[in-house]
Structures are given as C-alpha cells and as structure tokens.
C-alpha cells in the first residue's frame, strides 16, 4: 500500500509538471490549439514484450490528456483529440493522402526513422505527428512543411 501511494504520488507529480510545461510552451509561442493523437483501445492486446507491456499499459495517458484539457481551458487554449490511423505510414513530404494504401510512398527504414520518397529522412514520430495535425487541421501546412523542426526534443520535467 505504501509503495502504491508513493508510485501514484510520483505519477501525479510528473503529470502536473508535464502538463504545465505543455501549457507554458503553448502560451509562450502563441499556440491557440493543441492537437493530441488518440486511439480508443490502443493499449489492448499489444505485444512489445512482457515487461514493456506491463510498464506501457500502466501509463495513464487519459489522465495526461484530461489535465492538458483542463489547464488549456483555464488559459483559453483549444484542445482537439484526433484519431490517428495511417498518419505514421503516409509520406507527408510527397503530399500522400492520409488513408490506407496498398503501397505507401515513404517507409520506415529503421527504428525511429522515416524515409520520404523525396529523399528526406526524418524522425518517424515527427512524421506521425505531422499526419495527426493534418487530419485535425487539413490546411495546417498550406504553405509547406519544409521549415518544421524535424527532430523531436526530449523534455524532462523537474
């Protein structure tokens, strides 16, 4: 019981610090809308190894999303949840449509990297994030995506 309480306190602390960083970043950069990729049932029947399965399914992502929504509302920021099917397989640099294709233009070349048919190599999570944003806000990249930061930053809340 004491270990569970300690674990829950650590998770709650992490959630509050993380969501505060997200909201502060949005405010500092005049971001009016936050888009969050979400799939119902995405933790069901995953096969990433016994230990990873145990760790992954215990992460309270819904709680994180709820806190982002709550804190965003207080600051006047809109939050959109977006279903994310096909977003990470599609080649956004080639303007491939976000839908099922028998053969996709780009491909994941190794863990964490996606190679566009245009020759560009980007982080696979960034590629998926571009797709999630394009599904939520179809004209988000009307002026192109070349100026995007193509490498994610690891942020550790203190």
TrEMBL record:
<protein>
    <recommendedName>
        <fullName>Cas12f1-like TNB domain-containing protein</fullName>
    </recommendedName>
</protein>
<feature type="domain" description="Cas12f1-like TNB">
    <location>
        <begin position="61"/>
        <end position="132"/>
    </location>
</feature>
<dbReference type="InterPro" id="IPR010095">
    <property type="entry name" value="Cas12f1-like_TNB"/>
</dbReference>
<dbReference type="Pfam" id="PF07282">
    <property type="entry name" value="Cas12f1-like_TNB"/>
</dbReference>
<keyword id="KW-0238">DNA-binding</keyword>
<dbReference type="GO" id="GO:0003677">
    <property type="term" value="F:DNA binding"/>
</dbReference>
């Amino acid at each position: 019981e004491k270990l569970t309480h300690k674990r829950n306190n650590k998770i709650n602390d992490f959630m509050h610090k993380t969501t505060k960083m997200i909201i502060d970043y949005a405010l500092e950069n005049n971001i009016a809308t936050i888009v969050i990729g979400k799939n119902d049932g995405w933790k069901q029947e995953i096969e990433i190894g016994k230990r990873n399965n145990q760790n992954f399914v215990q992460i309270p992502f819904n709680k994180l999303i709820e806190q982002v929504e709550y804190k965003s509302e207080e600051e006047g920021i809109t939050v959109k949840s977006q279903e994310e099917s096909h977003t990470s397989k599609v080649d956004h640099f080639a303007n491939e449509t976000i839908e099922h294709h028998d053969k996709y233009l780009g491909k994941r070349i190794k863990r964490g990297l996606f190679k566009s048919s245009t020759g560009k190599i980007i982080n696979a999570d960034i590629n998926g994030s571009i797709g999630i944003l394009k599904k939520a806000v179809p004209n988000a990249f009307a002026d192109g995506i070349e100026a995007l930061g193509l490498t994610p930053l690891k942020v550790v809340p203190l």
